[in-house]
Amino acid sequence: MSADSLSRLNKDVITCRLCPRLVEYREKVAREKRAAYFNCEYWGKPVPGFGDPKAELLVVGLAPAAHGGNRTGRVFTGDSSGTFLMRGLHEFGFANIPDSVSRDDGLVLNNAYIVAPVKCAPPDNKPLPKEILNCRPYLDREMALLKNLRAVLVLGKIGMESFLEVLREQGHEIPKLAFAHGAVYDLGDGLPQIFVSYHVSRQNTQTGKLTPVMFESVIGNIKKYLKC
């Protein structure tokens, strides 16, 4: 499949209405807005992946934030999670600027592509198992279209399990792997190497569970691996 197919996939994502609870929530948030963004036009739709189609690094998150990606229309954009992530990616050359504010901010990802296993903002940042399953075919298609992947950065347990489940559904024998920040898993069989991090959510970064030093250590290991 060509790079154009990635564009077609993203169009399919944007028009998806498979999960009534998520459709209702994302559109309600877009109508009511947060006071700080009252004059902004919210995206209010599923959020497609973003980045370099020839990337060797895939970053797998969780879902758009209600007033982040659901507002801006780009994954990890417009909130503190996006800033934290881009600072780490920028430090090692995967992003040209250290922030992610809006779709027209000039951000370009270098050798990296970012996806969310759940494309719509979920209430309380907690998608239901059925909603994760409904979105899985999109992640499957994204992984199939990104032909050059050699490393995967999974942010949080849901991101990790979603990626592994796609591999299992593709017929790969993947053992149960423990989620632990800093873990690295070599799956063999020509599959990308997995690098594990806590999610870059405010809940983790503002409590000190995930610090910039901890996160940059993981990104640094990825950079070294890709240079091998």
Write the layout of secondary structure elements.
Blueprint: H1 3-14, H2 20-32, E1 50-51, E2 57-60, H3 69-72, H4 80-91, E3 112-115, H5 129-145, E4 151-155, H6 157-169, E5 184-185, E6 193-197, H7 202-205, H8 212-226
Parallel strand pairs: 2-3, 2-4, 4-6
Antiparallel strand pairs: 1-3, 5-6
Helix pairs in contact: 1-5, 4-8, 5-6
Explain the overall architecture:
By secondary structure, this protein is α/β, with parallel strands linked by helices. It has a single domain (3-226), classed as Uracil-DNA Glycosylase, subunit E (3-Layer(aba) Sandwich). Helices cover 39% and strands 10% of the residues. It is built from 8 helices and 6 strands, in the order H-H-E-E-H-H-E-H-E-H-E-E-H-H. Strands 1-3-2-4-6-5 form a 6-stranded mixed β-sheet, with helices on both faces. Strand 5 and strand 6 form a beta hairpin. The longest helix has 17 residues, at 129-145. The model has no long low-confidence stretch (mean pLDDT 96).
Outline of the structure:
With 228 residues, this protein is of the alpha/beta class. The protein has 8 helices and 6 strands, in the order ααββααβαβαββαα.
Report the principal-axis shape.
globular
CATH C-level class is Alpha Beta
Question: How is the biggest beta sheet arranged?
Answer: 6 strands, mixed
Order of helices and strands: HHEEHHEHEHEEHH
Mind telling me the CATH superfamily name? Uracil-DNA glycosylase-like domain
* Proportion in β-strands: 5-15%
The percentage helix is: 25-40%
Biggest sheet, strands in spatial order? 1-3-2-4-6-5
Q: Structural class of the secondary structure composition?
A: alpha/beta
What count of structural domains?
1
Give the C-alpha Rg.
Answer: 16 Å
- The CATH architecture can be named as 3-Layer(aba) Sandwich
* Secondary structure tally: strands: 6
Our count of helices gives: 8
Return residue spans where pLDDT drops below 50 for at least 5 consecutive residues: none
CATH topology, what is it called? Answer: Uracil-DNA Glycosylase, subunit E
The pLDDT mean sits at 96
Distance from first to last alpha carbon: 27 Å
